[in-house]
Design a protein that fits this description.
alpha/beta, 335 residues, Rossmann fold, Uridine Diphospho-n-acetylenolpyruvylglucosamine Reductase, domain 3, 12 helices
């Protein structure tokens, strides 16, 4: 067994996927084709059943259609069932009033989740690699991030009660992917947009990281991966502490409100107070897109000093004596 397959098998086994049905997200690029080919090679060892899924974004004209046709033949050769769908992402972006990248991602995951459910798959595997991880961490640092952003890409997350997203290649380098494809003689498609410098991610991959390796630290990739791992460990610890705190602090929870005993929070370090409110926002599915450090810290301020404030998504927070009341205002249509 090649080094790539050994690592891929180990990556899968982290998620206890034996004897499961798995949907593989494939684009035709080297990473997803390595995931596809490698999964076929080890599926009997793991006892898994695999199905491939591909969304044609229609962003590159006839090239997108050619990729889809090529992928269909590749899956036929590998004897893997393939589910394909074609969407007009530019039109979707206009209708949703969002950018092309966000629209493509949103449409892709909608399609993948529906396909997984239609084919009774309990896992959805995507082909992010260690290189994607380093690029993501660096991207987050450039934009400005906290501890959670330093974790980079999580190795798994629940999409719903019956479907888990997994990334079995997250510890595998892109070089290892390329070596494997060369060894087995597996062709793949190249997306020319990966070289388009208008996208920040491409500039990080093609310009910034090579410069950092050359002029500052030849092992910058390993350093960023260690940072992501250590940040994940810290976040696990914080999540545990927050859970213990909120079990004592929350007085009651309604469909549109949470009441909290501020006495349980007021003596905590300010960063832990912020983390407690982040957890509440996540639990209540309240909008977090416009909740930055200033907003989270405002919640800590109200907890300590009192007052009231309306946060994005029309979430009203008010302190009455020792009681903190967080309530989503009625008839709010804010996203």
């Amino acid at each position: 067994m090649t080094d790539f397959l050994t690592k891929l098998k180990s990556g899968y086994q982290e998620f206890n996927i034996e004897n499961s049905s798995i949907l593989l997200a494939v684009s035709g690029g080297p990473d997803s084709i390595a995931l596809l080919s490698g999964s076929v090679a080890i599926q009997n060892d793991l006892g898994i059943q695999i199905t491939a899924a591909h969304l044609n974004h229609s962003l590159r004209g006839t090239t997108s259609d050619e990729d889809a046709h090529w992928l269909e033949k590749t899956c036929d050769n590998l004897k893997v069932p393939l589910v394909q769908e074609k969407q007009d992402i530019q039109q979707f972006a206009k209708s949703e009033q969002i950018g092309i990248e966000e629209a493509a991602r949103k449409a892709r995951y909608r399609f993948l989740q529906k396909t997984a459910k239609d084919h009774s798959c309990t896992f959805l595997a995507v082909a992010h690699t260690a290189n994607d991880q380093t690029e993501t961490v660096l991207h987050h640092i450039i934009r400005g991030t906290g501890i959670s952003g330093l974790q980079g890409i999580p190795s798994w997350r629940k999409l719903d009660d019956d479907l888990t997203l997994i990334r079995p290649m997250l510890s595998i380098s892109r070089k290892s992917v390329e070596n494997y494809l060369s060894e087995v003689g597996q062709e793949f498609r190249i997306d020319a947009t990966n070289e388009d410098s208008q996208w920040t991610r491409n500039r990080i991959r093609n310009e910034l990281l090579p410069q950092l390796r050359k002029d500052f630290n030849p092992k910058i990739d390993e350093a960023l991966l260690r940072l992501a791992s250590q940040s994940a460990d810290i976040s696990v610890t914080i999540d545990y502490m927050v859970n213990q705190i909120l079990q004592k602090a929350i007085v009651d929870i309604a469909s549109d409100a949470v009441r909290i005993n501020s006495d349980e929070l007021i003596s905590l370090p300010r960063n832990l107070i912020r983390e407690c409110f982040k957890s509440i926002w996540i639990t209540k599915h309240w909008p977090r897109q416009r909740m930055g450090f200033t907003e989270w810290d405002k919640l800590a301020e109200i907890t300590i000093d009192g007052g009231s404030y309306t946060f994005p998504g029309t979430i009203q927070v008010e302190k009455r004596n020792q009681l903190l009341i967080c309530r989503k205002e009625a008839n709010s249509t804010a996203k």
